[in-house]
């Protein structure tokens, strides 16, 4: 008899997770996913489309913990729950349904970066490593015992999007390795030491505001943590909003130490920062218009912008 599961999933990791379960011979009785938000940049794969191709029923409740949803899932009698980048917490009533337990795939090396947006937070903090973790689901988010992990490197100029693209194959590697053992009852979960990590909340566009009192490395980390497809890092100057949609850091000394400024040099925009180091700006925009040297010169004083003046 095939193992059966209900899967809560979204995003590329959700697509990969479902594919791995099918490959492992799991009967997926239902997929619970999200309606796409028309205001969100949908750059990732569709769980609903994948489920449709495999004739798996799909529901998209606004909240999974409603009584009718819980009853619907309980009536399916799944042996397992799996959650792959699903954005809602599951209630204790839901988690009590599958006799073999509920398991979540999280985008960090737990117990580090529990909570929302783990990839963005890891890049923002300048981490050199992150990964994916499969763990038991309990009422407290990202706190259940660990099944297995797979690490990936974060290079100094990787964006959050670059890192996320590394996590998708890492998730496949992890699930292909541990699912057969988990389904066969041959893995002993290991309790997490939550004191060794922190919990982080969700991020909003306003969190991309640049503090020009920070070091070049810290500002670069913010820029790459929120670079497209995320909303971007920004600052306001002289009634205009400027966005930095990419950066490159190599530890260069500022061209004019002691001044925080943005300028054009050698075919690129650069930012000299408060620690007397600089980084290259890959794309600079003003009020929604991408700037080149001529456009920048037209709106600045002698081709220089001093963002600390009124940011």
Architecture overview:
Helix content is 26%, strand content 27%. It is an alpha/beta fold. It has helices spanning 11-23, 47-53, 67-76, 92-95, 118-124, 160-183, 216-225, 293-299; strands at residues 4-9, 27-32, 58-59, 80-84, 102-106, 114-115, 129-136, 146-153, 199-200, 233-237, 240-244, 247-253, 261-265, 268-272, 277-281, 284-286, 289-290, 304-305. 39% of the residues are buried. The strands form four sheets. It has a seven-stranded mixed beta sheet with strand order 3-2-1-4-5-7-8. A five-stranded antiparallel beta sheet has the order 12-15-14-13-18, with helices on one face. A four-stranded antiparallel beta sheet has the order 10-11-16-17. It is elongated. The mean pLDDT is 94.
Q: Going across the major beta sheet, what is the strand order?
A: 3-2-1-4-5-7-8
Q: Label the structural class.
A: alpha/beta
What can be said about the biggest beta sheet? 7 strands, mixed
Mean pLDDT, all residues: 94
Radius of gyration in whole Å, from Cα?
A: 23 Å
* Terminal Cα span: 64 Å
Got a strand count? Answer: 18
The coarse overall form would be elongated
Give me the number of helical elements. 8
DSSP strand content = 25-35%
The helical percent reads 25-40%
Order of helices and strands: EHEHEHEHEEHEEHEHEEEEEEEEHE
Low-pLDDT residue intervals, each spanning 5 or more residues: none
